[in-house]
Amino acid sequence: MFNINVKIKPSTIHGNGLFADEPVKAGSTVYQGNAELDLIISEETFSALTTREQQFISQYGAHSSLDDQWHLPHDHIRFCNHSNNPNLKLSYPDKNSHSCHIVAVRDIAAGEELLQDYREFEELRECLQDL
């Protein structure tokens, strides 16, 4: 769930993007994962899905090497676009848990697009080879 207000708007990077609707201070936790609400899919289940379903999950979800499962978020975090120079990063405050937080790496202005480096959490997204 988000700890800040966000909006989905057209992005200059790709399709629609996720934008801060308020200023964010560096180091602030912007988002906390919620495994109870997110869809968690094993590799076996993922492999049995149709190509269209796999494409959707790989477009809007992420494969975690921590638990070797696909994670499809229940909320707007799926609209966070990739950047090699992101303003957000993953944080695992409890190393014994797979629960992740996303924190601001610098101050973020209201209206600024929220960006992550997808390589932090997903090594399977083939589109990064083209970036």
From TrEMBL:
Where does the signal peptide begin and end? Answer: none
Start and end of every SET domain? 4-119
> PROSITE patterns in the record, alphabetically?
SET
InterPro entries registered for this protein in UniProt: SET_dom, SET_dom_sf
Official protein name in the record? SET domain-containing protein
